[in-house]
Hints:
single chain, alpha/beta, Rossmann fold, three-stranded antiparallel β-sheet, 3 helices, 28% strand, binds zinc ion
Amino acid sequence: MTRPSTSGRIEVICGCMYSGKTEELIRRMRQVDIARQPFRIFTPRRDTRYGIHQITSHIGTRLEAYPIDSIVEIPDYLDDAVQVVAIDELHFLIDDADQIAAMCQQLADRKVRVIVAGLDQDFRAQPFLAMAHLLALAEQVTKLYAICVRCGAYATRSQRLINGQPAPAAAPVIAVGGLDMYEARCRACYEHPQ
Ligand SMILES: [Zn+2]
């Protein structure tokens, strides 16, 4: 099957926890599905909060997804017909920033529309490097906001909590968790881990 003459591109959906990244990814992929464009959705195997073969937003919407550990697995799941590749929770992949950027560029150069969603900052309010790379390379960037649980302002940071207190800076960068473990906070209410 020959690929239709659409041009490839990279779209990034970023923001903090509870900003609606997965909902936005699902919204775009539903449109793709309705338009009958062949697509594949990938989700890191590490994100085990919900069912393993689907992406589920916090509000419970679901779409079928292929679980992967590394971005280099993606071509194994593609054929020439696939026009859209979506990756949810990109920050959970094991690869370094260069590998992730190289694969997204390669796909987009092959006329695939690549849509990635993920956290732009870790719980220490430092950039996730893979996301930082893609934000620079992308054709389209959507930064979403949550609402600060303390003051109601726009939140851009994910505060990780342990027993209700900010997690220490030495804690692992990746820790999967939900409402008991993360709060969305604004710049003023965010507490820098010690
Ligand atoms: Zn606040």
